[in-house]
């Protein structure tokens, strides 16, 4: 069992809040401010794909918004990232690792979504984080590995890197 210093406990609280705010940004804002959560050279890695730097991250989420608007029922997609079992390791004042699972729920159309609901994905996640000069923790690299994928999934093939992360 780990024993935390007060500084490490504060960093863990900040990192947890950043993780939960990241999920909210993706779910409620469809990633419009995604760059706020990443270092300038930060990367999102899923499957064989790597989206690095603010421009690539913003383009990834813009393409997802366009796809939703043009291909899904009502031009909408309901999405919920539930980050569970976070284990946070503070390496020093400026570096930390978050390991967690993402239960991803999604469905096309407007709310409310009717019928039985279950996660579409269970994704193992690892976030390498850095505290930047402004004092905020940001993601240097977010890597994800799908563990369970539902047979009916409303977004692209996650094993090839086309999932909304």
CATH topology category name: Nuclear Transport Factor 2, Chain: A
Average pLDDT works out at 90
Estimate what percentage of residues fall within beta strands. Answer: 35-45%
Instruction: State the secondary-structure class.
Output: alpha+beta
- The outline comes out as globular
As a percent range, the share of helical residues equals 25-40%
Strands, total number: 6
Number of helical regions: 2
Radius of gyration: 16 Å
| Poorly predicted runs of 5 or more residues | 156-160
The termini sit apart by: 31 Å
Give me the strand/helix succession: HEEHEEEE
Strand arrangement in the largest pleated sheet: 2-1-6-5-4-3
What is the name of the CATH class? Alpha Beta
- State the CATH architecture: Roll
Counting structural domains, the number is: 1
The main β sheet shows up as: 6 strands, mixed
Domain SnoaL-like: 9-141
Protein name: SnoaL-like domain-containing protein
InterPro entries: NTF2-like_dom_sf, SnoaL-like
Characterization of the model:
With 165 residues, the protein is of the alpha+beta class. It has a single domain, classed as Nuclear Transport Factor 2, Chain: A, CATH 3.10.450. It contains two helices and six strands; from the N terminus they run αββαββββ. Strands 2-1-6-5-4-3 form a six-stranded mixed beta sheet, with helices on one face. The longest helix has 24 residues. 26% of the residues are buried.
């Amino acid at each position: 069992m780990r024993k935390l210093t007060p500084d490490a406990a504060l960093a863990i609280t900040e990192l947890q809040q950043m993780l939960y705010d990241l999920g909210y940004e993706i779910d409620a804002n469809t990633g419009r401010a995604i760059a706020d959560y990443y270092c300038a050279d930060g990367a999102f890695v899923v499957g064989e794909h790597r989206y690095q730097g603010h421009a690539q991250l913003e383009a990834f989420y813009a393409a997802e918004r366009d796809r939703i608007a043009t291909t899904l029922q009502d031009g909408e997609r309901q999405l919920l990232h539930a980050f569970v079992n976070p284990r946070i390791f503070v390496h020093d004042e400026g570096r930390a690792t978050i390991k967690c699972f993402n239960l991803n729920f999604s469905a096309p159309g407007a709310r409310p979504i009717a019928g039985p609901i279950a996660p579409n994905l269970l994704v193992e996640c690892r976030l390498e984080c850095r505290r930047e000069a402004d004092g905020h923790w940001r993601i240097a690299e977010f890597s994800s590995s799908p563990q369970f994928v539902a047979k009916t999934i409303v977004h692209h093939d996650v094993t090839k890197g086309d999932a909304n992360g």
